[in-house]
Amino acid sequence: MNGTCLKFEKPIRDAISRIRFAPESNNFLISSWDSSLRLYDVDSFTLRVEVPSEAALLDCCFQNESVAFTACSDCCVRRYDLDSGTHDTFGNHDDLVSCVEYSAETRQLITAGWDRKIKSWDTRSTNPLECLKTPFAEVESMAVSGCNLMVAVGSSVNIYDLRNFNKSVYAKELFPGFQIRCVRTILNSEGFVAGSIDGRIACKYYEVFTSLDTIYVFWCHPKSKDGRHHVVPVNDIAFNPFISGAFVTGNHKGYVTTWDAHSKRRLLELPRYSNSVTSLSYNHGGQLLVVASSYAYREGNETETIFHKICNLKEGMDWIYFEVLSVAYFGNTGWILGQPLVNIAKFIASSAWRMPNPPCQVWRDSTRLMASLEECERNHFPEEMLYCY
Question: Repeat WD: residue ranges (predicted)?
Fold first, then answer.
């Protein structure tokens, strides 16, 4: 497998939160903690659009080939005109916005935030159609398939019918005691797959929601030599839209693995990335897979993009994937959290653009955990952990 290293003319200056292919073309969105939304054209290997904003971008989605939305750390939902490169504030939450999804079936935009609210929007209006309150925890991940909305809250997955949004039609705790990191829908609304922070995957197939609730759970990360499983968070999952049951997982140790949900077997494991895989996305035809792997150096401010071609994965088909590597910049002045950061979203909220009167409750709370740089220098932290300067 050969790789080609590409460079952006203006490097991505911070970690990548999400990558998404367009619904019909081979363009994909890149949302990043550096506040910019980028549109990359794979066919011509060019960056078509780069739109800066005022806050970290925690998620992104397409409405169509020309319009996109982002979930932002300053409590805003932003709308982007990709043809003109402009954006405006579409809506708001009471705390940072963690997830954004668009349903082409119902023409609704769905957003969720750390205010524990899930909002449904008509994109022709800036007033929400519906607003639900999650009782126990913030929404960590969402996915839309047809009229179904999958929502990961704590260790549970709730499913809502977007045509009747007042209550969930399905709710199941998948990983008792462990938070779900991501949830994605199986092709043709056949079910869903969820990944947890302890490295497990849960597959749920259904035709109708019945009392017979069969879920297949397995570990993504291989056992160590002593027979124990490593606790390695599953950061993202992506289903191939062309091959039924085929999906890939990306984890915190830098592994990307292809699975067959029908046979419950691992198909392929790509060479390990040197840092965690943060996002995955297939194009509309299933021939291209984009992989985002974010680095965190103590020095430097660069981003690389490596392209690989993988042959003979299944039925002689050529599979291509793209790796976008982001380097988070660590300065020599500032503030640091007093302990390793496990939750990426909390790292964003704690590190992003300290303000005199931050709009988010998360920012206000996080400042109480801050220690001065002088105190930081008296402590030793392992290099492989992630800290905020």
Answer: 90-131
Within 13 Å of residue 80, how many CA atoms lie on the same side as its CB?
A: 27
CA angle, residues 166, 57, 120, in degrees to nearest 5: 15
With a cut of 80, say whether residue 34 has pLDDT above it: yes
Q: How far is CA 5 from the centre of its chain?
A: 24
Residue 231 binned pLDDT confidence (cut-offs 50, 70, 90): confident
The residues facing 246 across adjacent strands are 260
| Contact in structure between 90 and 382 (CB atoms under 8 Å) | no
Helix (H) or strand (E) holding 126: none
Cβ–Cβ < 8 Å for 111, 99? yes
User: Which tokens hold the place of 388?
Assistant: 């905020």
pTM for the whole thing?
0.76
149 Ramachandran zone, left/alpha/beta (phi>0; psi -120 to 50): beta
Pick the residue with more confidence: 208 or 282? 282
CA dist 62 and 42 (Å) reads 16
The letter for the amino acid at 387 is Y
Query: Which pLDDT does position 125 carry in this prediction?
Result: 86
Element (H, E) at 351: helix 344-351
Instruction: Name the pairing type of β-strands 277-282 and 288-296.
Output: antiparallel
Cβ-based burial of 136 (10 A; exposed 0-12, middle 13-18, buried ≥19): exposed
Distance of CA 319 to the CA centre of its chain: 22
Question: Following DSSP, what letter does each residue of 297-330 receive, concatenated?
Answer: -SS---EEEEEEEE--SSTT--EEEEEEEEEE--
Please name the residues in contact with 358: beta carbons below 8 A apart, sequence gap of 6 or more.
364, 367
